Sequence to fold (266 residues):
Amino acid sequence: MGGDGTPSFSTVRLEVADAIATLTLDRPDALNALTVTMRQELLAAFRAIARDRAVRAVVLTGAGRAFCAGQDLKERLEPDAAPLAVELREGYNPIIRAMRALDQPIVGAVNGVAAGAGASLAFACDVRLAAEGASFLLAFGRIGLVPDSGATWFLPRLVGTAKAAELALLGESLSAADAEHFGLVARVVAPGELAVEARRLATRLTELAPRALALTKRALQRSWSVDLDDALEDEAYRQGIVGTAADHEEGLAAFLQKRPPRFTGE
Ligand code: LHQ
Fold:
């Protein structure tokens, strides 16, 4: 535990400042490949963020030259490695679920290669920025596996079915520029600018009404499994919740008084 109450870990770094939690995958020598410990710490970090009402936005990034190279393949060779289905059900899937269930929006700052389950982690973020030179690699097929950790769900929704099939089946590297072209990342920035730009984006998110953001995140997610009628009703339901909240009143007052709103999450 850090001095400010923020938990400390050995393979991920969690720093909270100015309502932003910055979560850094931190095994740079192995391109931030995911070990059992790292997955446990990553999940614990997301759970700590979920409990911290002071955090209004999250930045997920990697230390060193990679975002994340996916499963640590060396660890897979250890005699006590769990079967793959168990690793997924108990190790990976809870992380993806925690990211999607998180009220606070997650900005993925993809600083370098995002491969295998590392790409899935990037896909599970709400908004992605990439550094020039970053890339996405559906590396699963190269080692005789199928895409996992949500990749088959996120990818067609992010880039369309045709491009998703090409990326998933061929497993070729997608450059940051192409990722922007296909809508996989919001913007590509110079490597030296990525952290600043991600923070700037996160700061903008911290200035918005937290409950409205959380409900927007859920509504977008839910939209994939409902028809238009259901989505219209769902929007009305959610608007009924945030429409009676103090933050909506504050938003209206700020508009009329021509000043920036001060949202409290109430
Ligand atoms: C690594 C890794 C790595 C360990 C680089 N592990 N050390 C799988 C199984 C279980 C359950 C759930 O789901 C999954 C999902 C998956 O994630 S499957 C996909 C796993 N990931 C990959 O197949 C990617 C493997 N890595 C690569 O293809 C390359 O390293 C990339 C393209 C990412 C980067 O290439 P380079 O820039 O040329 O770097 P490098 O290959 O030289 O790697 C640098 C170091 O990082 C090196 O270590 P060393 O000690 O030799 O310097 C690599 O061994 C290590 N590393 N990825 N996944």
